[in-house]
Structure formats: C-alpha cells, structure tokens
Design brief:
disordered N terminus, D-Maltodextrin-Binding Protein, domain 2, alpha/beta
Length: 241
C-alpha cells in the first residue's frame, strides 16, 4: 500500500487530462447481485456512478459499452474497450497483457465479535465461524484454532457460552445477532477485508490511463466521496476507506 501511495503521489503534479481524452468503458449487460449494475437498459448502479465520477474528475470523455459476461474480457483484450468494469475481483486471472488498478470496493466486510474488552491480538485463541473460503484463507495465515459452526448464530452462541473467544462473519449477518445479545457480545475488531477487492482492468501498455484511474480512485478515498458513493449503493455498513 505504501508503494502504491508513493506512486500515486508522484502523479499529482501531472495533468490527468493529458493521458487520455476519450475512454470506452466496458461493463456487464446482465444484472446479478454480485455485479453492482442494475437495469442494463438504463445502465445505472454503483459502477456506472463511480465510473462517471472518475471520468468527471479526470476530465475524461467516457462512453459505456454494455456487453455479455463472456464478451467483456475479449473486448478488452481486443481493445474494443479501454477499461473493463464488471465486479472484477483483484484475484481473478485475466491473462497476459492485462493489468488491474487499485481496488475501489471491498464487498462483504467482516467483523470479529466477542465479550467487551477482548483484544484480537492477545486474548484470542479460538475463533468460531461458518464455512467460508475467505475465512479459510485468512485462517491459514494465523495461529488461531478455527471452530466451524453450522450457523453464524451458533458461532455467536459459542462466544456467549465461553466455548470460543470470538466469532467472525460478514457484518451484515452479524448485526442482527449482536442486537439480540443484550450487549454481552460486541464488535472487537471490524471492517476487515477478507474477500478480494473489486478493481478496474486495462491493457498493460495503457499505463498512463491505469495510473490516472488509480490516482483518481485514491483521491476519492481521501476526500470521503468514495465512502459516500459506496453508502448510497451498499448502505452504511459497507467498507469505508
């Protein structure tokens, strides 16, 4: 992250308008709950709103090309579009010659919950959760004992009974369970990014445009505008920068 910040800081003095005036952004035609684009006919949604904000800030003239899921990456590879925005996880393999920007969204924020005053780094040995690849990947780099539970409610109940030290789960799913705990369990560490961030994809040889968008994304994370836009589409419990 420090390297990215340094790289972006070095671009501040460069006029972003000089990199590209006309940009074609490819996005998905079909709505899916994980795509963050709704009503393809009108093309609206989080990614459309974010793309327009970035283009406006950068002085770029952006047009949108709506494509089916199977046609989106080939369109970028064939340079029919300059940018691909379609809920692309940073871990997705896109092939040679394609690069991604810094993340502009971290979906499915996770919280760790436990008794009041619990310190995740110090007091915790046993962690309860439901089966989830993101939690499995996180657990692989820790020394905690992971106790898998049938439901997240069971995981919270295990915390309340003292069988485990903390439970981990998606914030949206944990919130109603915490409301029922009468204050015996609370968030001890929150806003954790256990799933990969969502990113834009561009051609590797279009490095100026990629750095331009990274600079603009970074700027929006710093002035609060990306938080505000994310809250509009995903609610106040979405990840904040």
């Amino acid at each position: 992250m420090k390297l990215v910040t340094i790289m972006l800081a070095g671009l501040v003095s460069l006029p972003v308008q000089a990199f590209a005036q006309d940009v074609t952004i490819g996005t998905l035609a079909d709505y899916d709950p994980g795509v963050f684009t709704v009503d393809a006919a009108a093309l609206q949604g989080f990614e459309k709103a974010l793309g327009e904000a970035l283009c406006d800030r950068g002085g770029l003239t952006c047009t949108w090309k709506v494509l089916d899921a199977e046609a989106l990456l080939p369109a970028l590879q064939g340079k029919d579009v300059d940018v691909m925005m379609g809920a692309i996880p940073m871990t997705r393999v896109l092939g040679d010659g394609i690069e991604t920007t810094a993340a502009y969204l971290y979906p499915d924020v996770f919280d760790f919950v436990g008794p009041t005053g619990t310190e995740l780094h110090g007091d915790v040995r046993k962690v309860a959760s439901i089966s989830d690849p993101a939690i499995d990947a996180w657990h692989g780099s820790t020394g905690y004992v992971l106790e898998l539970m049938p439901t997240l409610a069971d995981a919270v109940a295990a915390v309340e009974s003292g069988a485990v030290d903390v439970a981990v789960g998606e914030r949206a799913d944990l919130a109603p369970l915490l409301a029922q705990s009468d204050g015996t369990v609370e968030v001890v560490t929150g806003n954790r990014r256990l799933r990969p961030g969502v990113t834009m994809a561009l051609h590797a040889d279009n490095i100026d445009l990629r750095f331009t968008f990274e600079d603009l994304i970074y700027d929006m994370t710093q002035d609060g505008s990306l938080n505000a836009l994310t809250e509009v589409w995903f609610g106040k419990d979405a990840y904040t920068w």
